[in-house]
């Protein structure tokens, strides 16, 4: 059951189950959760959002959500993410021009607090949209402010929390789920799978 504001998250533990896997990236965490394996989190954006715990000892068992990416026309699952799904223009400068859509489960993205109200087990996907009209200079300023989560509000940025979002992906755009590119064009959905698995920190 997703947490509610003010509730304690998870339970205190001292040892993980014997089949727990240590994962150092968001992609590894998502793959383990998809396979039904409990995960000891030791890297990635989710790890950063949880305070970057280190070492072999664990202290807490937590339920987390996953984000599922679906092709609307076929219903096919295109991928899953435990931290973030990014839609941006293709190319090295893709984040500096055109629209950007970030669907976040944990709020952290590339070292910044992109969606500061996100929580990995609240049953919602936090969405940050960058309008295509936002200049390169404004984007750089917003990125610097996002280090502390102070980039919002902004007239060219739209933030909201939803259970799912429908998006049309254009031929000049790409989908990146937990750092891995997914090839798809057309209408997709990004939806929350609540309580999708168990992690340990």
Number of domains: 2
Strand content: 35-45%
- H-E order: EEHEHEEEEEEEHEEEEE
State mean pLDDT (0 to 100 scale).
89
Continuous helix count: 3
The residue ranges in which pLDDT falls below 50 over 5 or more consecutive positions are none
For the largest beta-sheet, the strand count, sense and barrel status come to: 7 strands, mixed
Coarse structural class: mainly beta
Reading off the top of the CATH hierarchy, the class of the largest domain is best stated as: Mainly Beta
The percent range for helix content is 10-25%
Please state the overall shape, judged from the principal axes of the Cα atoms: globular
Topology, number of strands:
15
For this structure, the CATH topology of the largest domain is Tumour Suppressor Smad4
Rg of Cα set:
17 Å
- Oligomeric organization of the protein chains: single chain
CATH architecture label of the largest domain: Sandwich
Distance between the termini: 19 Å
Could you describe the 3D structure shown?
With about 200 residues, the protein is mostly beta strands. It folds into 2 domains: about 10-65, no CATH class; about 65-195, Tumour Suppressor Smad4. About 10% of the residues lie in helices and about 40% in strands. The chain contains 3 helices and 15 strands. The protein has helices at about 25-35, 45-50, 135-145; strands spanning about 10, 20-25, 40, 60-70, 75-80, 85-90, 100-105, 110, 110-115, 125-130, 155-160, 165-170, 175, 180, 185-200. The strands form 3 sheets. Strands 1, 2, 3, 4, 5, 12 and 15 form a 7-stranded mixed beta sheet that branches. It has a 6-stranded antiparallel beta sheet with strand order 11-10-7-6-13-14, with no helix packed on it. A two-stranded antiparallel ribbon has the order 8-9. A hairpin with a 2-residue loop joins strand 13 (about 175) and strand 14. The radius of gyration is 17 Å and the shape is globular. It starts with 10 loop residues before the first strand and ends with a strand. The mean pLDDT is about 90.
